[in-house]
Design goal:
Elements lengths: L3 E7 L9 H9 L3 E8 H4 L8 H19 L5 E5 L1 H11 L1 E8 L4 H16 L3 E5 L21 H14 L42 H5 L1 H4 L12 H5 L5 H9 L3 H19 L21 H9 L5 H13 L4 H14 L4 H11 L5 H12 L14 H8 L4 H6 L15 H17 L1
Parallel strand pairs: 1-2, 1-4, 2-3, 4-5
Helix pairs in contact: 4-5, 6-11, 10-11, 11-16, 13-14, 14-16, 15-16
Length: about 425
Amino acid sequence: MKEKITLFWMRRDLRLEDNTALYYACQNEENVLPVFIFDSQILDELEDKKDARVEFILQELQKVNQSLQDNGSSILTKIGKPVEVFKTLIEQYDIQNVYTNRDYEPYAISRDKAVEKLLKDQKIDFFDFKDQVIFEKDEILNESGSFYKVYTPYKNTWLQKFNANPPSLHQVNFKKLYQTDPQDLPELKELGFEATDIQLPALEIDKELIKAYDQNRDIPALDHTSRLGIHLRFGTISVRKLALEVKKLNEVFLSELIWREFFMMILYHNPQVIEESFKSKYDQIPWRNNEEEFYKWCEGQTGYPIVDAGMRELNQTGHMHNRVRMIVASFLTKHLLIDWRWGEAYFAKKLLDYELASNNGNWQWAAGTGTDAQPYFRIFNPSSQVKKFDKDLKYIKKWVKEYGSDQYPDPIVDHKMARERALKTYKSALEK
């Protein structure tokens, strides 16, 4: 006799506290068994086998597993393609239902549809829930009933709904968990990866930092960023808990969470933005795509110290300061006229807090091709940015050790010439 269980499929929600799908599974079912699948289709696409994000997932799963074991349960981990894994699980257990939290990326949507079809063919129900956002899909619409294309009115409607009906936190009933012997997690090498020396950000809501966020967020030497991006990305923190907390502390920080949801909504309604410009007319831009210049940008060898400092910080830590992200993206797309998709792909490989919707949205914003983007004729002057945000050169000297010496390279492009070239190129393309 196969044991009757309900599966809670954990993905981008690596926590037990205030987990929507887990809450409803434990409210409605008996013998709830958490399962996590290391999706081989995702892992196989990661070129660098020293990817700290895989380490982070394993680290957080260890914490989840320990908490489950404290409640007499454990997490079941599998490696493979989700549909194939579920076929095996159906053979092993008498699965009553499957509960999970929704994901809005195109691959995740198609994956979930395939799993749901498999389950329904076996008379197993598939229940999914909103968890990684406050508002999803069509919950924030304009007066004409369509999605917002401009951030500020989206934000205003978001705040109005949030303040009128603040989210509540879910208290999970752990007594409904399936009681099982402790299950081992795979080793990093079993997944095909190696350990890194990158320091993973701890989960900490620094209230004092958040209170002063609007005053300090643009000064890279202070590094007054929360480092919560990776925790939001993998759901080790509840976005409801975080939003309720920061609402009391700092409006500007809360607006960053709203930007995150704005870009998720844009991606959900416009999956084509992964490959195309949100504003299709910008697909006419004849990018130069000089590979040598792109390589120098990647390595932090452009001769523009604020750009180089940012890229070196990214390469060494998996993190880059928010203000500097805008500067390096503007430099690549405007000064070098290199396709924003090249920069987006590089960030996707390197950023610990990489999230498809935000990465795509921010790169298209910088390039002028996206929804509510900065106009193409707004081109950051890297030297002016240094004077504004790193006038004492603390950030630059931290990451560009040879700055000021003969070893530091000359600028790979002249700012004035590059600016005029970008303006001419964009203008000409749009006139066509």
